User: Fold this.
Amino acid sequence: MPKRYLVTGGAGFIGSNLVDALVQRGDSVVVLDNLATGKRSQVNPAATFVEGDIRLYDFPSLGSFDGIFHLAALSRIYPSILNPVESSSVNIQGSVRVFEYARSISAKVVFASSSSVYGRKKTFPTREDSFPDIQSPYSLQKLTCDYYLDLFYRLYGLRYAIVRYFNAYGERQLSSGPYATVVGIFLNQFLHNQPFTIIGDGLAKRDFTYVQDVVLATISAIEHDAESGMYNIGTGVNHSVCEVADMIDPGHPKIYLPQRPGGYPETRADNGLARRVLGWSPTMQLSEWLQAQIQKVSLRRQREQVV
Ligand SMILES: NC(=O)c1ccc[n+]([C@@H]2O[C@H](COP(=O)([O-])OP(=O)(O)OC[C@H]3O[C@@H](n4cnc5c(N)ncnc54)[C@H](O)[C@@H]3O)[C@@H](O)[C@H]2O)c1
Assistant:
């Protein structure tokens, strides 16, 4: 049966892909987003778009929902180090307002948490019960919300699922600016014949996960009848930043920039829980997706030469 969902951050990279999938299933979707990093043009026209800030919005005016996907956030590590006050007000205070609203309407919440809470782990793959190692305000803010949800469940019976995303990539990823992801930045640099900019030595490894796989896991998490749960959403395979550059073009020039604070050497998900409980498994490999993008770029360049 179609459901009515609220997607906070539904104009952003992952949120807009999630909204498309929900609309395609026939669900009714309201997007709340202040367009801090998201784009109005990315919001599916079949969804209702409301421009607003989760820190201030009068949530009851939106009515009731079967579930809330809470993805709105200032969503990267380095900006949170530059501005911990602003990021904490959105990522903690704003989130608690969303959870409080969910509680008031008895809606289940799916919260977009982050693999960055595991920090400088040395044992891989990392399980959900692995002790956190906090290296940035962003990670602390995500972990704080994970704890808030568990507390709200115990205090008020708020049902929730925490999905800890591991470096999502794919359609609509940002390709420039402080909130861009490495895959988006490299593809954009390749497209414009600019050198790849590598921060640090490029040996940091990340578990890159395709956005459509992330979306499927997120929907499975709201549908599952467990009252609470926390799931790693990653592939279980990782690649270094230099390997990603080489997957795009091994001969492309690279520029190395100084390491920034807040980093950590490696992420790799133990996704056994998501597989067993949610019935989820990743379907796309990074190299496969990158090959398809590179083919599109080559075709475009060939066509431009013909014209
Ligand atoms: N992309 C990843 O690899 C990744 C990894 C781990 C966790 N996450 C989390 O997943 C969620 C989505 O990430 P994304 O990559 O799509 O980021 P994004 O920046 O593209 O999306 C975040 C959205 O939240 C909106 N937003 C920001 N502040 C807001 C506010 N105060 N009120 C209302 N809306 C606000 C932005 O405009 C944007 O549309 C975020 O919570 C992020 O922290 C993402």
Summary: The mean pLDDT is 96. The first strand starts at residue 4 and ends at 8.
